[in-house]
Design brief:
The complex is a heterodimer of chains A (357) and B (288). Chain A is mainly alpha-helical and 357 residues long. Chain A has 14 helices and 2 strands; from the N terminus they run αααββααααααααααα. Helices cover 74% and strands 1% of the residues of chain A. The radius of gyration of chain A is 28 Å and the shape is flat. In chain B, 36% of the residues lie in helices and 23% in strands. In chain B, a hairpin with a 2-residue loop joins strand 4 and strand 5. Chain B is globular. Chain B contains 12 helices and 10 strands. The interface between A and B is medium-sized, with 23 and 30 residues.
Chain lengths: 357, 288
């Protein structure tokens, strides 16, 4: 039969290749299991947090509930999410998580207000204004700043930011301004008098929100500047040339060509810096403190969610108690907050990548 | 790096390359009215160095207004460097150093009181690869007007339409002005870049191999466009393509390796009766 398979030109598989294919399959399995390690770790962390958080709210772990344990409302969601006092380990415990969520948000937003403008301006300077020699000298310094352990920033806060910077702002700026307000308070006594009193009363103890903001803001500047600068450097020089040839100035090229073209990378750097600020622990604990105040006063001590985790992890509460389990509820909330930051990052990236290729 | 005359070669050998010969003969350069026009760009002993390398060597010549002047020559001959030195885009290259004089309307553009930003507002440029901004078609064309802070009374819509018509692109994009300039084809992108350049009404348009990244059909549209542009603008074009230079230019400058301007004359003269034997060799494909 003419249609019958011919012996062929040696392209049909034979035994000589089997060993190679087997090696390939083995390597594939090795690589896949490495990838699996991270995925499984993430899942495991989530499950542990979730399981323990369940026992914080319902008095028993998921596994125990399934096995038939009684459901007991130890802490209600209502108290947890709307209570304004956070003191699970107090003799009269309170489980309102708002003060420490506020602490984390205040530090994160405040740090963003520091690091985003300064970091973006630094990136624009390095990418668009600095000569090569200057950039090559400055960039490594910024990256060193990014590599300093956060505990070092914490002691920087304790020894410099709080006493010198924040203390200086309070005693040399706010207090005199209050005294001046006092002197003219007869103009509008009901408004100026309390403001003056408040301003003159401000002083800084060991910890303050403002110190936390300054320290976390400073330590996230390099993240913003370094990643933003990479994004700006990736903007093709063709675009700059096109704009310069139209008689654009350096500032116009930087703001109207480079910034919009690099926007997806720049936004990614912002999100990364904010995520870092949310999760930041050591520096913020040493700078902002351990007192869960629901306050807007930047000179007050506050507690972030991470600071609470640190203070509880020092081990004064017994395993299985409600205050011990509160660790996992707060941890789960923190996990969900950073997770949503990552999702927002992905969303923004996809959106802007479509617009600017 | 030798600009020596390849004297050993005889002119006779070159004529038996029928392809190039016929193509050039078949399409003689357009003869715009022979009346003499003003000089718009003039150079005197212009040299440009990149570090220690000399890219342009004592170039002296005059470029006429409202004409197409082509720069041809082998790669690395300094023709693009020359183009960039007219609107001082060489300033962007740290290592570049310029000696000699380059006059625009009689004013040396390398004088201390010349602002390159102001100069570039008079001298537009179109680049080798189309480089529209990642913005809408409208914003691309309006960019130059916006950065130059044109008077409030200038109607931006009007100016954008005029520029797009001037670049023979209006009919193709008039109903998609809000779409990204990057969605256009390569040829359309290049015409968009031309529209962007003429929107601010410069006097000179520099073109650095504007068709080298395009297919032949798109390229021929650009060539037709250049032919119309010289009614209002002076076009100085660098090209690798000798047939293109022959087709569209009134004057041709031939640069050879080492940044030397070997010959500058009417395009017809350059292609039919060059004085310098090296030019003849280059044009007939024997050099470079």
């Amino acid at each position: 039969m003419s249609t019958e398979n011919q012996p062929g030109p040696g392209i049909s598989g034979d035994d000589s290749l089997d060993a190679d294919h087997e090696a390939n399959r083995r390597i594939r399995r090795v690589f896949f299991s490495c990838a699996l390690v991270t995925v499984l770790t993430t899942i495991a962390i989530f499950l542990v947090l979730f399981d323990n958080a369940a026992s914080y709210f319902f008095g028993a772990r998921i596994s125990e509930l399934i096995a038939g344990a009684d459901l007991e409302r130890t802490v209600t969601f209502g108290e947890f999410f709307s209570g304004t006092r956070w003191a699970p380990d107090h003799s009269t415990p309170a489980h309102g998580v708002l003060p420490i969520v506020w602490g984390t948000l205040a530090i994160t937003i405040g740090a963003g207000l520091v690091s985003i403008p300064i970091g973006t301006a630094t990136a624009l300077f390095l990418s668009e204004y600095a000569e090569d020699a200057t950039r090559n000298r400055l960039k490594p310094i910024l990256e060193v700043l990014a590599g300093i352990p956060t505990i070092v920033y914490g002691y920087f806060a304790v020894s410099f930011v709080t006493p010198v910077l924040v203390g200086g702002i309070a005693s040399n700026l706010i207090n005199p301004a209050g005294a001046w307000l006092e002197s003219i308070s007869h103009l509008a006594p009901f408004v100026l008098e309390p403001a003056a009193d408040w301003m003159m009363a401000q002083s800084v103890g060991r910890y303050s929100m403002l110190a936390g903001i300054i320290v976390v803001g400073t330590m996230t500047i390099p993240m913003v500047s370094s990643i933003s600068e990479d994004a700006m450097q990736a903007v093709p020089d063709d675009l700059r040339n096109g704009a310069y040839a139209l008689g654009a100035t350096k500032y116009q090229v930087a703001t109207r060509i480079v910034l919009p073209a690099a926007v997806s990378g720049i936004f990614a750097s912002y999100i990364l810096a904010l995520s870092r600020a949310i999760g930041e622990t050591m520096a913020v604990t040493l700078a902002a403190g351990f007192n869960a105040n629901l306050t807007a006063n930047p000179f007050d001590e506050i507690m972030t969610m991470t600071a609470y985790l640190v203070s509880m992890a020092r081990g004064t509460s017994a395993v299985g108690t409600v205050e011990y389990q509160s660790l996992f509820a707060v941890g789960l909330l923190l996990f969900l907050m950073t997770l949503s930051m990552n999702l927002i990052n992905d969303l923004l990236k996809r959106r802007f990548q479509e617009e600017y290729r | 790096m030798s600009s020596d005359t390849p004297d050993g070669r005889t002119v006779d050998e070159s004529t038996d390359d029928p392809l190039i010969q016929t193509e050039i003969d078949a399409e003689p350069s357009p003869s715009r009215d022979a009346e003499r026009t003003e000089t718009i760009v003039r150079t005197k002993d212009l040299s440009v160095y990149y570090g220690d390398d000399r890219a342009l060597d004592d170039v002296t010549f005059e470029i006429p207004e409202n004409r197409v002047t082509a720069m041809i020559g082998p790669s690395g001959c300094g023709k693009s460097t020359f183009l960039r030195s007219i609107n001082r885009m060489n300033d962007r290259i740290d290592a570049a150093r310029v000696e000699g004089d380059l006059y625009f309307h009689g004013k040396n553009v390398y004088d201390d009181d010349v602002d390159p930003v102001a100069l570039r507002r008079k001298i537009g440029q179109v680049f080798q690869a189309p480089n529209p901004f990642p913005k809408s078609i409208y914003d691309n064309v309006a960019y130059g007007l916006r950065v130059q802070g044109t008077d409030e009374d200038v109607d931006l819509d009007d100016a954008v339409e005029r520029a797009l018509r001037g670049a023979a692109l209006w009919d193709e994009v008039s109903d998609q002005l809000d779409e990204s300039g990057l969605d256009l084809s390569g040829g359309q992108q290049q015409r968009l870049c031309i529209a962007r350049a003429i929107a601010t009404d410069p006097e000179v348009i520099l073109m650095d191999e504007p068709t080298s990244a395009l297919d032949p059909v798109a390229a021929s549209k650009i060539e037709d466009l250049i032919d119309e542009l010289v009614d209002e603008y002076t076009v100085i074009i660098v090209t690798h393509n000798m047939q293109q230079a022959a087709r569209i230019s009134d004057k041709t400058a031939v640069f050879l390796t080492g940044g030397e301007l070997v010959e500058f004359d009417d395009t017809a003269t350059i292609f039919e009766d060059p004085t310098d034997p090296r030019v003849e060799d280059y044009i007939t494909g024997k050099f470079g």
